[in-house]
Amino acid sequence: MQRLVKRSFLFCGVALSIILVALPTMAGLSRPGQNCLAVFCFSITMWITQFLPLPVTGFLVFALLPILGVLPSSEAFSLLGSNAVFFILGAFVIAAAMMSSGLSKRLALLFVSRFDKSPSRLLAGVLISSAALALLMPEHVVAAMMFPIVLELAQCLKLTPRQSNYGRVLFLSMAYGSVIGGVGTFLGGARNPLAVGMLKDSYGIQIDFLQWMIAAGPFVIVMLLLAFLMLKLLFRIEFVSVREAHEHLRADIKRLGPLSVQEKKIASIFTLAVICWIFFSNQLGLATIAVLASGALFVTKAISWKEVEENVNWGIILMYGGAIAIGVALSVTQASDWLALRLIAPFSGSDFSLIAALSLGTKLLTEGISNVAAVAILLPISFGFVDVSGLSPVVMLYAVTIPAGLAFALPIGTPPNAIAFSSGYYSIGDSIKGGIILNILSWLLVLVVAKVYWPLLKIM
Amino acid sequence: MKKILLLLSNTGFSQKTVETAFELAKEQKAELISCYVVDERLPESVSSWMIYIGFMGDKPSEEYRKVILKEYRKRAETDIEEVEKMASKEGIEIRSFLKEGSWAEETVKLVEAEMVELIVTSKPKEGQMGKLFFGSALEELMKKAPCDVRVVEG
Questions:
Q1: Which domain holds residue A209?
Q2: Contacts of B53 in chain A (CB under 8 A)
Q3: Which residue among A132, A331, A379, A385 is least crowded, i.e. fewest CB within 10 A of its CB?
Q4: Per DSSP, what are the bridge partners of residue B101?
Q5: How many CB pairs below 8 A link A and B?
Q6: A349: phi then psi, degrees, rounded to nearest 5
Q7: Cα–Cα distance measured from residue B109 to residue B66, given in angstroms and rounded to the nearest whole number
Q8: How confident is the model at residue A101 (pLDDT cuts 50, 70, 90)?
Q9: What homologous superfamily does CATH list for B3-152?
Q10: How many domains does chain A contain in total?
């Protein structure tokens, strides 16, 4: 059944792309604009069905845009070298260094051990530690790193899979914490710098590291609080003695020994990079700082290229480059405006209903496909709304990118959910129950923040 | 002598299934075999999601796979031990196997090697939702099994 739906979608998507290229130019569209829509339709189809690997679709976009006369080949290929792509590249090298040196595991253990005094505090500890680490490195990396720690905690607390509510909430809090923390900075989810890169290339507006943190910060704080309360109320946790967990964490920290020279080098370079991103990104550029910091890791022999290769899948660069290229092409050919005009009619009453619809659409899409793909699909469309609605593209950016990171319900929504689910401590039903509540709460939070908080930051 | 296979997996332990297999073995004076297949499908899918969607390299994905399979193996050993204890209380002789791989394929291999005539197993606890996302191993087994399969609910 699932395969049939996928195949039908694939067939319809490819057929529509071919029809768009073959049809005479439609009213209000230029020939390059219509062909750009065909490439966009093809990319959406591939990103959703995953008939081709995500990076391969990104790669093909670079060939399709010049072939169909949308952008000159030199312009299309140059978009692979955008600031966002190089920032992501640098951030991944830094994350790889933190993982391979064991610094990330040390940080995780130190964070969690601060909260191991009672079951509720330990639960809050897993949630907050996952979120705090996801502010510093990709959420997927955080979940993969936290997983063995949480699994060992569950084992030493003798929690039975599928029976212990405390086991359920521990793993769910690991997933939720990673997901929530991922929206807080450019480092947590690479979709964030990708979206900012698309904004810069389409409108020339630069959002810096600190501006993003200020705009997205309330989501992290409020969502963590809501997730904690929801987990406690939805799954009534049984009494467990956390003494053994406390001892286990202490023993783990002791086993790691003192901070190694390699860890010290990485910690210093990373701290310096974060300071530069926060205070000097306007002068130095986000990508320049990221590339310099990753270069410093190699110069100081804190990491080898082999270690980076083992920890990072470089396909991401092609995927992100392709997403940026198609976003720019839609904007340059004004195909995004044309598309937005046809989609905006039901929401023409108010800008707020438009934001509500966009963020809801993003939340629904991100539960089923990669959150990067959700941003790559919906952000160019939402930019098209800018000219016809009068809303700032910055609002569109936040209204799409923040909800795109917040996938809570399905194990296939995002790797942290899948990793936590594979523990076997909770069922898909548990995941959906908790996820739907958090999805509704996070969507409402986007609306409240868009109405009350962002205008205070002059984002409207 | 007729052979009955009590088939266990990491989708959940069912007391009712074990009891049904014991009753059938007693009634039919059959030899009872138990087999726990550590199903690698879920860790494999998660591992490939980590590479494909999470863009993580081979090392973290492989480390994750090792951790989760070790955990599944530990659970399998506990469940097999539990079944052996229950059988001993009932005075039933039982031979146990622990296998890793595809649940349906590993089971079919054992059924053919041991010439099993009946498989007794549980309905996966994930139900329709699990089937939607991860496919149905039980359906695959029903199609491929060269003998009868009795599915116990609950």
A1: 2-456
A2: 54, 140, 370, 372, 414-415
A3: A132
A4: B39
A5: 99
A6: -65, -45
A7: 24
A8: very high
A9: HUPs (3.40.50.620)
A10: 1
